[in-house]
Amino acid sequence: MRQYFQRKLGIYVLTFFVAVTVDWMIPRFMPGDPVQTMLARASLRPEASQAMQAYYTGVFGLDVPIWRQYLNFWGALLRGDLGVSIWLFPQPVTSVILRAIPYTIALLVPAILLSWWAGNKFGAYAARRRWLDNTVLPVGYVLTATPYMWLGILLAWALATVAGVFPIAGGYSFDVEPSWSVAFLADLAWHWFLPFASLFLVGFGGWAIGMRNLIIYELEADYSHYLESLGAPRRLVRHYAYRNALLPQLTGLALQLGVLVAGALVTEIVFSYPGLGYLILQAINNQDFFLIQGAFLFIILGVLLANFLVDIVYVIVDPRTRVGMRGAA
Amino acid sequence: MNVTDSDELATATPAAAAATPVTLAAKVRPGREALYFARRNRKLVLGLGVVLVFLAVAAAGPLVNPHGPNEYVGPPSQRPSAAFWFGTTMFGQDVFAQFAHGLRATFLVGLLGGGLAALVGMLVGFTAGWRGGTVDEVLNMLTNVVLVIPTLAVLLVIATYLRVRGVVPEAIFIGLFSWPWVARAIRAQTFSLRTRDFVDLARLSGAGATRIVFREIAPNMSSYLFMTFILLFGTSVLTAATLDFIGLGPTDGMSLGLMMNNAVLWSALPLGMWWWFVPPGLGITLIVGSLYIMNVGLDEVFNPRLREL
Amino acid sequence: MSLRVDNLKVWYRTLRGEVRALDGVSFTIADGELVGLAGESGCGKSTLGKSLIRLDGRMRHVDGSVELDGKELPIGDSERMNGFRFKEVSIIPQYAMSAMNPTRKIGLLVAELLASRGERPAAVRDELLRRLALVGLEPEVLDRYPIELSGGMKQRMVMVISTLLNPSLLIADEVTSALDVSTQKAVAETLVELRDRNVVKSTIFITHDLSLVYQIADSIIVMYAGRLAERAPTDALVGSPRHPYTRMLLAALPEVGVRFADQRLEGIAGSPPSLLNPPAGCRFRDRCPLAVARCAEQPPFVEVAPDHYVACWKAS
């Protein structure tokens, strides 16, 4: 088992390395003097320009050899210094991002967990009844084919503009002061609901379909037939099939993390929800490259961590991995 | 009676119980049989039909409708009418013209991006599966790294720095990052097919590696490869739409994601201008959804066990 | 216990029509009898075995009846059959290697199965351990996952599970086909022992390996193309086979000590008829060296000697 985790960790570390390197390399391949081009694009006040120059020189440092620049970049990264935001000068990128992260996490984690759990349950249930199966399947495919932002748009339009039940934008109402009061938390939740629902629904569709297909496969497996031949009730056979079908769904969760994160980002944009996605949009509109690069690294880090977590859970849940590693008798 | 090792009493014959359909089927060429079932498969026919309708709109729309996507052709914020089928934007542009042009970009991205991803996936998968050893290890490492990196994140960083962006580069970038799962699946299949008899036969007759892979192994997976391409087409369309929505799409031309971006940017939501943001999203949903359903139908056509009685 | 099968017909629904896998089969099995059911691939022996316990999705009970100890066995009604499964009729399936849930410890699997059938696992535990010892498995195997067992061990474990509640009738469906010779011997001997210790009353041993079943069966049934060809006590069948098919089958077996240069192996030319639209009359007609015009009419399965039944005009 240690070998398994070592291998996985190895891949994640390597990936992080590659990502950071790509992140650092890209500006250099743009034509022209990267520093000047970028500073010129960002309309800065002169004193801001000076401070930027200082940081930039350290990281891009034209007077410094390339390998040194690279190391400087890593050094800054490990110190938590991702530069200073051009758009929100003089705030450092790291703190800007850290302010937005909680909103994104608040959207992502419940949406991922709930849609996975509910989708699986529903997909398994749908496989049991023909009429349900015939309605669930098309709906599921349509849901999973829906672009995240469009569902967000539809929900915003239907429930916010037309029905007026939910707010259309923001993390909390403009006239409310952030505090730990119940009223504020309720306001937060009220604003949180639509983006969450949007993420939930698209994910739900995908998992339901996946589980429905997998469970049909499991119900036709030899062990299912054997149990049925011995008169085991459907309840037991379905229980085994469901538990076995969850395993590839777990693997699928790890594979989908990138897509889910992207979905959360665009959903935030639709609702102007103050998370990482909305931040990125504003960074793009304001040509704030440091912010974008910083966001990129945060996303990569988050996805790698989540992947690792799923790997751990998988080893716990699938006994074959532990046994296989021990060596068969 | 003397007894030796159990030998099949079926020195007589190899036939199996339900083998009678096989003897009949042997008289029908496999291609013909697939076509027979394909025509009768509702999912396949319906899905393909929807996709073809949109293709027709993409091809013929801009010819029928004389307005350019960014032309100011009429009064702003108009609801759909006989004059403007999908109404106008906040600036008085023809939404239908934008839609039709956007569809073209969508199909282009799907084709190029999906095609490229399929190609790379096949290349990596076949090579890793066929060669094994160190080549396989290295390719595996590459596959895993690209797999874990979220596509959008990378595209985000790349596209940000590009001043001018076109549909083709966008498609290429998407294709370059969407292939890992394909490579994995093909590698696994190649591994298992590699040990089969017909491959050994080919090897004995002196066929080289490329020839064996393309003439023996790939045709056995042809149905799977086709279905994979369709899936990649769909995911490329979705990825491109997402990228365009963030504002990192092509700088010229129109796309469905860009339409939604503009709509949200210019407050179409609070103003209730549904004709601006419903069509593009609906188009994508219907095209990708139909592709997925087509895939299910194709699976039933190619895999006899799934065909319903 | 006694089993009586009367004109049983079970067909498969396929896209091209109905495959008449079992087309009018009648026989009886006495208490404590170990019957070998032999025939080539596609003759219907597995269908017969399966239809006595669980019809799968494509199978259809067309005609005929089955009686177990005088009571009707409702093979067409899966709900009612459930009362009989595992307790009165049990099966060791063809796919014993993959018959156990790969993600469940074997002991837990058995306990859950017993509980779901209304038995208390704790009450059966001692017997379970005794059975494990009987087949040569250690008690620790209950704490393992199926993946940790070898093929032979899995086969034996499945044998233990299937016979745990002492069924009256045990169907052993090609249990030796995937094993090496020494394990085959062990498994075959275990089946005999299960019968001798009264764990199971009667057994139907389905196989295509005449040379194996000869060693343990009390009587042998030979099937061909969905119908019975011959049924006789083992010695009678092997010593004096009456049906041409049986004769040719036995002749096709290699003999110890005979070399290829001296005598070639003879197969039976041709192949079995399509069961989608089987020909009228005796189904072996096209390959039979003794066929005459009369064979266009299906010969009845009649007793030609004590307990010796044949379906052949030439034999009766």
Q: Any descriptors?
A:
B: 309 residues; mainly alpha; 14 helices; 71% helix; disordered N terminus; C: alpha/beta; eight-stranded mixed beta sheet; four-stranded antiparallel beta sheet
Q: Can you describe this structure?
A:
The complex is a heterotrimer of chains A (329), B (309) and C (316). With 329 residues, chain A is mainly alpha-helical. Chain A is built from 13 helices and no strands. Chain A is globular. Mean pLDDT of chain A is 84; it is low at 325-329. The longest helix of chain B has 37 residues, at 95-131. Chain B is 71% helix and 0% strand. In chain B, helix 4 packs antiparallel against helix 5 (133-148) and helix 11 (222-246) runs parallel beside helix 12. Chain C contains nine helices and twelve strands. Chain C has 316 residues and is of the alpha/beta class. Chain C has helices at residues 45-51, 78-81, 106-116, 121-135, 151-162, 181-196, 210-216, 234-239, 244-252; strands spanning 3-14, 17-29, 34-38, 59-68, 71-72, 89-92, 169-173, 202-207, 219-224, 227-233, 302-305, 308-310. Chain C has an eight-stranded mixed sheet, sandwiched between helices. In chain C, strands 2-1-4-5 form a four-stranded antiparallel sheet, covered by helices on one side. Chains in contact: A-B, A-C, B-C. At the A-C interface, helix 9, helix 10 and helix 13 of A face helix 3 and helix 5 of C.
Helix and strand content put the structural class of chain C at: alpha/beta
Kindly state the percentage of residues in helix of chain B. Answer: over 70%
On the 0 to 100 scale, the average pLDDT of chain B is: 82
Strand order of the largest sheet of chain C: 6-7-8-3-9-10-12-11
Strand percent estimate of chain B: under 5%
Q: Using the CA coordinates, give the radius of gyration of chain B.
A: 25 Å
Helices and strands of chain B, in order, run as HHHHHHHHHHHHHH
Silhouette of chain B: globular
